[in-house]
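Design job #97: recover the sequence.
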């Protein structure tokens, strides 16, 4: 960690020798390089702390409030501090000392007790505002010109569009170095992908090659631009084709992840079913004799060309007599599967 600390003793002790009177400075408390060993031959060993970006001769312990401003510029790795509207002191922070796998650093305040009891109070008058990000996904069946919702059906061969929308809503910092991890359903064959930003710039995304031996389950891509109030949106578009299947095939839902230095967000893809290109056949009695005044009853049977089973739920028949549309006939779940029985009243066919 890096720390800005206050020294409240006029001269300090063996740990705090060089600064004059009360002071502020910056250092890495966990780093051995922060300390210099002294003594040895004529005195006991002791360690002296090295002070960086020091400001000394300060009136800190005077019973008054003191205003401290800390600022971190991530792009330049510079931390600065200003006390009571005085001069600003800057120090460069070597973030590699935190470890290559550390991407977030926790910050805060701590204090030590002395023999002189006193209240130590801190008031935050303004904190950095964390950025707020929103991510959405719209899946569109371009062939049928409709949105694909959870549990919907699409036909094999339909062209599908996955459009992710990343929106920067507010915050003090930009959303930088965003990495996208997007699922690629095995049953959708993607052919093109790109990103369009709010400022009008575009970038192409190279889709992973499918060698038909090891299907790539996810697309990994680093966004080339940052999102901010000046460039608040990124539209990630993937175009693909639903697989041409020989039986109804379920496409599972999954999670898409977007992770930058300042924020991580995720959005879910919908699950849906890819159907075969079914043809519905209706067979009816070709000739029916009806006495004058009696209703016409037409019986028939619905079958699918692939021979697969189905049920009557949601099955509807539309028909016309003498060019006139009749009332839609809804198959009943109580009837045998595919059974149709239409009744046409005399007043309708004697026109």
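Job complete. Output follows.
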């Amino acid at each position: 960690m890096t720390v800005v600390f206050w020294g409240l003793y006029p001269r300090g002790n063996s740990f705090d020798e060089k600064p004059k009177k009360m002071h502020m400075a910056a250092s890495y408390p966990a780093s051995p390089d922060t300390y210099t060993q002294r003594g040895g031959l004529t005195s006991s060993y002791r360690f002296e702390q090295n002070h960086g970006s020091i400001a000394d001769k300060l009136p800190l312990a005077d019973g008054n409030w003191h205003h401290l401003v800390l600022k971190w510029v991530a792009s330049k790795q510079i931390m600065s501090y200003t006390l009571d509207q005085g001069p600003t002191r800057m120090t460069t922070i070597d973030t590699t000392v935190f470890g290559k796998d550390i991407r977030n650093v926790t910050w805060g305040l701590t204090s030590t007790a002395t023999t002189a009891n006193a209240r130590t109070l801190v008031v935050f008058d303004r904190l950095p505002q964390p950025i707020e990000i929103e991510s959405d996904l719209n899946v569109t069946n371009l062939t049928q010109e409709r949105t694909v919702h959870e549990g919907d059906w699409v036909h094999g061969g339909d062209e599908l569009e996955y459009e992710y929308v990343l929106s920067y809503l507010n915050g003090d910092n930009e959303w930088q170095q965003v990495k996208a991890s997007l699922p690629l359903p095995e049953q959708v064959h993607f052919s093109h992908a790109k990103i369009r930003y709010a400022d009008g710039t575009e970038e192409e995304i190279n889709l992973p090659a499918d060698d038909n031996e090891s299907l790539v389950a996810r697309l990994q891509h680093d966004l080339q631009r940052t999102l901010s109030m000046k460039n608040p949106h990124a539209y990630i578009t993937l175009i693909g084709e639903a697989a041409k299947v020989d039986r109804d095939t379920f496409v599972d839902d999954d999670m898409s992840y977007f992770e930058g230095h300042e924020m991580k967000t995720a959005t879910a893809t919908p699950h849906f079913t890819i159907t075969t290109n079914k043809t519905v056949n209706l067979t009816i009695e070709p000739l029916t004799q009806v006495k004058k005044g009696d209703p016409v009853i037409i019986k028939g049977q619905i079958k699918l060309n692939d021979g697969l089973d189905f049920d009557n739920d949601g099955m509807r028949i539309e028909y016309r007599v003498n060019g006139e549309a009749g009332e839609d006939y809804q198959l009943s779940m109580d009837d045998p599967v595919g059974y149709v029985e239409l009744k046409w009243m005399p007043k309708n066919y004697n026109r």
